[in-house]
Amino acid sequence: MKQMITSILLLSFALLNMQCGTDESIKTEEPNPKPDTTTTTTSDMTNPFNFQTKTVLLNSGYEMPIIGIGTFYLSAAQAEESVYNALKVGMRHIDTADIYGNETGVDRGIRRAMNDFGIKREEIFVTSKLWTSSFNNADHEVDERLERLGLDYIDLLLLHHTAPHDGSSSA
C-alpha cells in the first residue's frame, strides 16, 4: 500500500531568515541564572524558536509547529491520507486553503487521526487562507471553512492574494 505524504512544509528555513520584530506581549521563559548557549538573542528579544519542541513562538503568544504538511495540489482523497499519515508520524501543523478544494479531505484525515491515535484538537495547528475576492465577506468565508474543515477554530488565517502571474488574477 503506497502512502503518500507530499508538500512537506518546512517553515523553519523561512522563519529562521525573517526579521523578528519586538512585541511587549511576547511570552518568554524566565532567563536562566547562567547564560544559555543554546539560545540566541537579537537586540531586544530571545529567539522565538524552540527546537526541542519544534515550535516557534508567535507574537500573539501562541506556539506554532515549525514542521508540517501542506495540501496544495492534493485531491480530497490524497489530502485525507496525507493528513492522517502526517499526524500519525507526529506532525501537528496542517496547511490548507479553500482554493485547494480539499478541505473536506483534510477534515476526514484529522478526524480519523484523532480517533485512531487519541490526538486532541488543541494539539493540531491548522492554517488556512482567505482569497482576495473574499476579503469583503470574511465572516461568511471563515464560517464556510470551519464547516468544511469540521473545526471550531482555525489557528492561523492568512490572506491569500493574487499576483500578476496567477491565472485567476483580476489585478
Describe this structure in words.
By secondary structure, this protein is of the alpha/beta class. It is built from four helices and eight strands. The strands form two sheets. It has a five-stranded mixed sheet with strand order 1-5-6-7-8. A three-stranded antiparallel sheet has the order 2-3-4, with no helix packed on it. The termini are far apart. The model is unreliable at 1-44 (pLDDT under 50).
Tally of DSSP helical segments: 4
Distance between the termini: 44 Å
What would you report as the Rg, rounded to the nearest angstrom?
Answer: 18 Å
How would you sum up the global shape? globular
Helix content: 25-40%
How many strands?
8
- What are the low-pLDDT stretches, counting only 5+ consecutive residues below 50? 1-44
H-E string: EHEEEEHEHEHE
Query: How would you write the strand order of the largest sheet?
Result: 1-5-6-7-8
Structural class: alpha/beta
Strand content: 15-25%
